[in-house]
UniProtKB/TrEMBL annotation:
Transmembrane annotation, as ranges: 182-201, 207-229
Keyword set, alphabetical order: Membrane, Transmembrane, Transmembrane helix
Classification via InterPro entries: PAP2/HPO, PAP2/HPO_sf
Protein name as annotated: Phosphatase PAP2 family protein
Pfam hit, one: PAP2
Domain Phosphatidic acid phosphatase type 2/haloperoxidase, chain residue ranges per copy: 125-226
Length: 264
């Protein structure tokens, strides 16, 4: 048990150190390059900063999730919620496998329909792809560090919920793209993210703490992606004006990813 708690503590310290370092740099304003939406729209500039205020909610959610692994009261809430769900014996549906990506799909669909967000296709794909990479970098190692057993006892990879992390990363992506032009549209993605998290519990795959922690990691991942975007864009653009880069999402063999091609 002592080794288990040490592993959890190490995992939490990693997250805390990342948040602390980024928060210390939050006063530095990063000016993005001018982004051309399309041939008919004017160029826009945007300042991407990562202030401590943007870290409060995800850090609180992550903190709750980590605490639920060892704090007696929170662990009891996990069990009582699972017992309440099992009493009603809900049907296990797999919509959560798809709704985790729904907010991001909506962003691309809305842009295709003429409801433009903050970034063009290339730029938002870089941002969303970065968010997914960061989400995986948080979730996958922590699952193996925590080794928490799932409610259905299928394995020991319960914490944090990967589906929920992706869902909230996607919802935060939708929010950031539309919050300045259509606030209600921007927050609509959170309903799909909450649906995903709830159904991870209804399907007996995750505890309450797993879902809450996953939501925090997802939101944090997207905030980091927007903060990192100017640097990534500069790296991809390079100094050669004749170079070109293309980023494309792909789906193959039930695997979602992002492909990158660059010529110099």
């Amino acid at each position: 048990m002592s080794n288990y708690r040490q592993k959890i503590a190490i995992g939490f310290c990693i997250v805390a150190s990342v948040c602390g370092r980024l928060s210390a740099q939050s006063n530095d304003s990063i000016q993005t390059q001018e982004i051309k939406k399309d041939s008919t729209r004017v160029l826009n500039t945007e300042k991407n900063t990562l202030s401590y205020k943007k870290l409060i909610i995800p850090t609180a959610l992550i903190g709750y999730g980590v605490a639920s692994l060892s704090v007696k009261g929170l662990k009891q809430l996990n069990f009582s919620t699972r017992d309440e769900i099992n009493e009603h014996k809900p049907d296990h549906i797999r919509l959560d496998n798809y709704t985790q990506f729904a907010p991001a799909v909506l962003v691309y669909g809305l842009n295709a329909a003429g409801v433009e967000g903050k970034h063009n296709f290339r730029d938002r794909t870089i941002i969303y792809g970065t968010s997914m990479l960061i989400t995986s970098a948080f979730v996958v190692p922590l699952k193996h560090i925590a080794k928490e057993e799932r409610p259905d006892q299928s394995n020991n990879l319960s914490f944090p919920s990967g589906h929920t992390a992706i869902a909230f990363a996607s919802a935060q992506f939708m929010f950031r793209e539309y919050k300045d032009t259509n606030f209600l549209l921007g927050i609509s993605g959170y309903s799909l993210a909450i649906f995903t998290g709830v159904y991870r519990m209804l399907n007996d795959k995750h505890w309450v703490g797993d879902v809450v922690g996953g939501a925090g990691f997802g939101i944090l991942s997207t905030e980091l992606a927007y903060w990192l975007y100017p640097k990534i864009n500069n790296l991809l653009s390079g100094k050669n004006k004749n170079s070109a880069a293309m980023v494309m999402p792909y789906y193959q063999n039930k695997t979602v990813g992002v492909g990158f091609v660059k010529n110099f």
